[in-house]
Design brief:
The protein has 280 residues and is α+β, with helices and mostly antiparallel strands. Helices cover 44% and strands 6% of the residues. The protein has two domains: 109 residues, Glutaredoxin, CATH 3.40.30; 112 residues, Up-down Bundle (Glutathione S-transferase Yfyf (Class Pi), Chain A, domain 2), CATH 1.20.1050.10. Bound molecules: glutathione. The site of glutathione has 11 residues, from loops.
């Protein structure tokens, strides 16, 4: 890697697969499959291909909440996609998500099966299919979708920006860390001000917007994301703290966050989920 202060971009960028970047083994400037691999299929109508990262957890929390509500059609098989091993580039996975990122869902209750990719699209699809956690219309629906898409637009600055440069980059670049820390803290303040006046993100109703935001900003404030709690002074976002603690006490959230998890204490991991019995 060149010294960043001395770097002059060439006329045309070329790919150096050994760039020394974090995740260089899976990052590529091209899309598409790298190898043939069929996806496994279980017995339930809903097949989820995922990993227990914040984007994956959004969907497993919703599925567990739907089941807790008694929506038995939401039974699902959650298969592990090991992104560090490049499994997102297998032909079967690319067939349901051409963007090669978890989570991806296949609904086999329709003919032909329906593929859904992008976590917010999956949340909306399931919320509409089971008629829960998404207000049907008017201002409440608009507010729910606004916070849902706020999360989708904001979290890449938290993960790909702050998280990457603070925790993962092989060199600490003050300019990049300052830029993305400023933005991460601004986003936390946006949430904190909203939650100062509301129990959940849109008011008194718990929705898919909370489920999308919690695995990122809730876990950042009360748990362990990028080891940045002290640096970001997360304790000072008291309303986010209160909301995050309320959500993490929900049994469905506790189950959902364990699905497709391959790290942390052994007893918390549910590497694949095929029935409620998998939670032990
Ligand atoms: N906007 C996408 C982002 C999904 C995403 O970034 N997934 C990451 C894991 S959290 C991934 O699969 N990365 C693999 C890769 O980039 O090759 C969504 O919300 O579904």
């Amino acid at each position: 890697m060149t010294d960043s202060a001395a770097y002059t971009p060439p006329k045309v960028w070329t790919w150096n697969a050994d760039s020394g970047q974090a995740f260089a083994n899976i990052n590529r400037p091209i899309a598409g499959a790298t190898h043939d691999k069929e996806l496994p299929v279980g017995e339930h109508p809903l097949q989820l291909y995922s990993l227990g990262t914040p984007n994956g957890v959004k969907v497993t929390v919703l599925l567990e909440e739907l089941l807790a509500l008694g929506k038995s059609g939401a039974e699902y098989d959650a298969w592990l996609v090991n992104i560090l091993e490049g499994e997102q580039f297998g032909s079967g996975f690319v067939g349901i998500n051409p963007n090669s990122k978890i989570p991806a869902l296949l609904d086999r209750s329709t003919n032909p099966p329906t593929r859904v990719f992008e976590s917010a699209a999956i949340l909306m699809y399931l919320a509409e299919k089971f008629d829960a956690f998404l207000p049907k219309g008017g201002a409440a629906r608009a507010e729910c979708l606004s916070w849902l898409f706020w999360q989708m637009g904001s979290a890449p600055y938290l993960g790909g920006g702050f998280g990457h440069f603070y925790a993962y980059a092989p060199i600490k670049i003050e300019y990049a860390i300052n830029r993305f820390t400023m933005e991460a803290k601004r986003q936390l303040d946006v949430l904190n001000r909203n939650l100062a006046e509301r129990r959940y993100l849109i008011g008194d109703e718990y929705t898919i917007a909370d489920m999308a935001v919690w695995p990122w900003y809730g876990v950042l404030c009360t748990g362990d994301l990028y080891n940045g709690q002290e640096f970001l002074d997360v304790e000072s976002y008291t309303h986010v703290q209160r909301w995050a603690k309320e959500l993490e006490a929900r049994p469905a959230v506790q189950r959902g966050r364990r699905v497709n998890k391959t790290w942390g204490p052994e007893e918390e991991r549910v590497v694949e989920r095929h029935s409620a019995a998998d939670f032990g």
